[in-house]
Amino acid sequence: MTRARDLGLALAGEPGPHNAITDVPGVEVGYTTLVEGASVRTGVTAVLPRGHAQFDVPCAAGTFSLNGNGEMTGRAWLAETGSLTLPVLITSTHAVGPCHRGVIDWVVRERPAAAAEWLLPVVAETWDGYLNDVNAPTIHTGHAVAAIDAAATGPLAEGSVGGGTGMTCYGFKGGSGTSSRVVAHGPDSYTVGALVQANFGSRAELTVAGEPLGAELAADNPMADPGWLAPAGAGSVIVVVGTDAPLLPGQCTALARRVPLGLARTGTTGSHFSGDLFLAFSTANAGALTSHFPRPDDPQYEQLRFVPWGAIDPFFEAAVQTVEEAVLNALVANEEMTGYRGRRVPALPLSRWRPAPPSR
Question: What is the Cα–Cα distance from 230 to 311, expressed in whole angstroms?
């Protein structure tokens, strides 16, 4: 699989060992990818902030909406409490319901006590209706369960996988991308990672590593056909940012607010017809957000640590860098795809950065 750094692009910051959100200790990601016949190009992505073993231990978390033409369930309770539990799923627009129920089914199967009262899963979506029959009841609860079951640490597949299977980005084949950065903080170092479901941007806006390329790469853009009614730039983007740095819920919200700066580096100005919704979480201080917060005389209280607000800028910088590179990875890792009603989306022409291999 080719990634943005393989093209020699100048991308700032020090990535983690896999350059993925799974470099954040404990984070697991899984996919269900559905490519069937001529009209099924869709799937489900699952993010488990604390992995399977501790999926019901809350994380500090916050969200931000750049443009609200989209859906991310569970945001009201997350804003109320500043905490996130359960796997986070990303999928197609009309599959939010089955995925929401799928998370509940998975929890009931794995740990019934965790579902004894109520569950409010976070499920986000972007629209894959250009390549996928979005109105068909393709995705069911079992696909959501399978994505959660498949979640693992280590390197991640990118491009047309999971919820990103049928997505487009800047008029090229888009989808799933990820990246990470190592951040020094005093004697410690932490990781910030991002996972992007990229389905946004008009071809004219595309910028790669600071170089505007929309005009140069304007050719071969089926989505610019006058018969396609969606405005240029329509679509959506979901970004999940994770870190093991000890951030407060408000600091996680601030981290989510930096996501648009990373997206803007790839050229987008943010379309009214795009649902741009972002979630950031911290896996530090496990147990601090449970109903039994440690008392000052509890030994666990002494173990709680937090990054001072005055020292948070390097984490903001890392979030911006990871989001930019995750979008580029989603583009670079892809191949051309044909789908619903014969519609075709080309891949980003990598020959722009490297010569094609010699013909035999």
Answer: 43
Distance, CA of 87 to CA of 95 (rounded, Å)? 16
- Cα gap 240→63, rounded to integer Å: 9
Q: Match domain 4-289+296-334 to its CATH number in 3.40.47.10, 3.60.70.12, 2.170.120.12, 3.30.56.10.
A: 3.60.70.12
pLDDT at position 183, please? 98
Residues 31-59 pLDDT 10s: 999 999 999 999 999 999 999 999 999 99
pLDDT at 303 (0 to 100): 67
**Two tokens at 129?**
């209706």
Please compute the mean of the pLDDT values over residues 222-251 and round it to a whole number.
91
Q: Given the DSSP bridges, would you call strands 88-92 and 122-126 parallel, antiparallel or unpaired?
A: parallel
Catalytic site residues?
236, 274, 276
Domain ranges of the chain: 4-289+296-334
* Each residue's pLDDT tens digit, 267-299: 999 999 999 999 999 999 987 766 455 555 555
Q: Residue 45 corresponds to which tokens in the numbers above? A: 């992505």
d(CA 85, CA 116): 14
